[in-house]
Amino acid sequence: MSFDEMYFRGGSMMEFAEVKPEHFITLSRDPHPHILIDRYLMQLCGGGTTAPAYHKKVMAAAGWKHHSLTPFTKYPAEASVAYNRVRDALRACDQTPDALLVALGGEAADPMRE
To answer: Are 109 and 97 in contact (CB under 8 A)?
Structure first.
């Protein structure tokens, strides 16, 4: 199954399960919801070298207040809140990188500033 088949079904986004704090501190054979959301964000922004910067902006807009090198396992409750905000915003907006940032209360990317 291709990435697009996993994440886009019938032209709409796949539903992600709720992210729970224990997801960050347990191992699973199947990827936890936050891993699937991360993969979706990488696909949404087009991948490549801009993907980590976009992920950092999305997580900051969702309320992740820690440095990008701080592991989610250090603050699993805060991480689950941020990922669930991303999950809810993905449901509420059209599936574009800028629309997601705006839905989270962040600023859309300004190509003139970059």
So the answer is: yes
